[in-house]
Structure prediction request, 272 residues.
Amino acid sequence: MAQRIGRAKHSIKSSGVPFRLPTSQERDQRLGAVLHVLYLIFNEGYTSSVGPRLQRLELSYEAIRLTRAVHHLLPDDGEVAGLLALMLLTDSRRAARTGPDGELIPLTKQDRSLWDRKEISEGIAIITAALAKGSIGAYQLQAAIAAVHDEAAQAEDTDWPQILALYDLLKRMSDNPMVMLNHAIAAAMVYGPPKGLELLRALDADGRLTGHHRLDAVRAHLLEMSGDHPAAIAHYRIAASRTTSLPERNYLMSQAARLSESTTNPASDDSA
Prediction:
């Protein structure tokens, strides 16, 4: 690292480029890159992409700390506020996301009494103030979606029509395949699994999702909702084979095993 810093200093010195403050346009571009990196750090901490642990708390904590610092420096920037609110509202569920052995617990099955109400209150206050300023960005919309989830006392109380409307807005400003994937889930919750599966078929041609386990995981979930258990089992297994996260793999295989058992032994499933 010291050698890299030394080479960078030498390159700057030899380039002859004068040191100056960035223009407002350059600042906005650089700020966008900074926020994106912080977002990626938080996501990797919240759901680790590889290894035996679902969460790497040191990363998510550091991302929140740095985003707080940026928010302190730029308190009137809506997207900075939106990103901080998104992190807090998402991190609030941390204690409920894993079981005693580190196994993944999905959002619908979490014990919501374990959610951090202090973080939820702070996140809602930040995003409410940011949205009131009128200029709305992608991080603010994601934070608003997280707030809707966090405000539901139980999974059945989730306001899916509002979430779908927010994803409709987010799709217009973000060409992110994960946004489209989550939009398909929201559409399935509002209009039924056939609508979600229809939207997933449109994503099959998106090369950015080729081989990504989440596309198969979502398809498996919607197929299970629609009652097509054999197809759901197949896609749960495909998704499990494609993820590099051990907790996610174990969860997906357990879903496939659960459906296989209920399919081959419906009587035992009915008595559970």
Remarks:
- Residues 268-272 have pLDDT under 50 and may be disordered.
- Residues 30-158 form one domain.
- The chain has two domains: 30-158, 179-265.
